[in-house]
Amino acid sequence: MAKVLKLETQAANRCFGCGGDNAAGMKLVFDLDFDARRTRGRFVLGPNYAGGGGFAHGGIIAVVLDEAMGKISKLTEEKAVTGELNVEYRKPVPVDQEIVVEGWQVQAVGRYRFRAGEIRDAAGNLLARGKARFVVVDARHFDRVRAVR
């Protein structure tokens, strides 16, 4: 049986993408699949996240991909921040239909974690693809910076 952990929102987290303490936030919930070494989420974004033409705003698409790729750090319990994010917008992402997003790690080099992610519609059609470089941050430094805020 596959080991899957549901990454629920946290009440003390103000993150726009996944935090529970942000009234304007997306409150995205992901499953972390330890066997496949992937994150997966299923969402209906809703009209609040629309851009031109009634489809998801490009920045929102970037947030969803960034969150999916960022959650991979939970597999190794590392603290990592986005250093670079590139998004390839393939097809319009609907705001009124379910989408599926996945993230995974491609390579680790020193403090860098190279990751990829995809957004697909319910039929499996590729809508957007992301590639990112995350930078591992020393946990003590991360906690000190967070405590100041």
Descriptive notes:
With 149 residues, the chain is α+β, with helices and mostly antiparallel strands. The chain has one domain: Hotdog Thioesterase (Thiol Ester Dehydrase, Chain A). The chain is built from 3 helices and 7 strands. It has helices spanning 58-70, 73-76, 139-148; strands at 4-7, 30-33, 38-43, 80-89, 99-109, 112-121, 126-136. Strands 1-2-3-5-6-7-4 form a 7-stranded antiparallel beta sheet. The protein is globular. The model has no long low-confidence stretch (mean pLDDT 90).
In short:
Helix content is 18%, strand content 38%.
Q: What are the secondary-structure elements, in order, as H or E?
A: EEEHHEEEEH
Q: What low-confidence regions span 5 or more consecutive residues with pLDDT below 50?
A: none
Task: Work out the oligomeric state of the chains in this entry.
Answer: single chain
* Topology, number of strands: 7
CATH first level: which class?
Alpha Beta
Instruction: State mean pLDDT (0 to 100 scale).
Output: 90
Treating each run of at least 4 consecutive H or I residues as one helix, how many helices?
3
CATH superfamily: Hotdog Thioesterase
Top keywords for this entry?
149 residues; seven-stranded antiparallel sheet; globular
Helices and strands in order, then pairings?
Elements: E1 4-7, E2 30-33, E3 38-43, H1 58-70, H2 73-76, E4 80-89, E5 99-109, E6 112-121, E7 126-136, H3 139-148
Antiparallel strand pairs: 1-2, 2-3, 3-5, 4-7, 5-6, 6-7
